[in-house]
Amino acid sequence: MSWAILASALLAITGSAQGGEAIWLHYIFKPLTTMLVWAMVWRATAEGASLYRKAILAALLLSLFGDVFLMLPMQFGFELGLASFLIAHLFFLRAFTRDAPLFGRRLPLILLLALSLANLLVLWPGVGKGLQLPVVAYMLCLVAMTAQAVSRGLSLGTADGKLAAAGGIAFLISDTTLAYNKFHAPVPASALLVLGTYYAALYLIALSVRQKAATYAQ
């Protein structure tokens, strides 16, 4: 499964980077990669980790919807994609609060809020008025998810906690790069940076489900 995910992700990135006649690779393999990650979580043993697994499955399904919406050429495609990923982050947040208190470690939240606000100040002139409120709402959900993932990882000190924390950070890097590329200035190798970190995020979070299930099975 891991090799299939890697191969699909590379094809999606290649299609996005090359564009033109190769764009069909992006259209096919971008959602397919997320579907493969979803299937990986679906196959994970649910015993002892069913609620965590269900929340991650819902988040990945919404991420899949977001993948498809963001590929639409119209402006509302971006808006629907943004909404899908916003709700996905709420489900990720729900998963990360199943076995750890919300923002039990405050420092990650403070640091990530400060970093995101600094980024927002740079990006703000390029954000259209119709997108300002959705972008702020999305940023807050993304920061909350990532901060909780890191807080949980620090609090639990378990392998699944560390994997999910790394996944949350990768998600933040991916979306921040995407935002700079869309609202500020073209980012070199943006397809590789955005999609590479995005798929790394999904895969690491999926691994956290499998690791958590394996831990309960012992």
UniProtKB/TrEMBL annotation:
Keywords, ordered alphabetically: Membrane, Transmembrane, Transmembrane helix
Q: How does it sit in the membrane?
A: Multi-pass membrane protein
Q: Please tell me the species this chain comes from.
A: Duganella flavida
What protein name applies here? Answer: Lysoplasmalogenase
Q: Name one Pfam family in it.
A: YhhN
Give TM segment ranges.
27-44, 56-74, 80-97, 109-127, 133-151, 163-181, 187-209
GO CC terms: membrane
Per UniProt, what is one GO molecular function of this protein? Answer: hydrolase activity
Q: Which family does this protein fall into?
A: Belongs to the TMEM86 family.
Location comes to: Membrane
The main place the protein resides is membrane
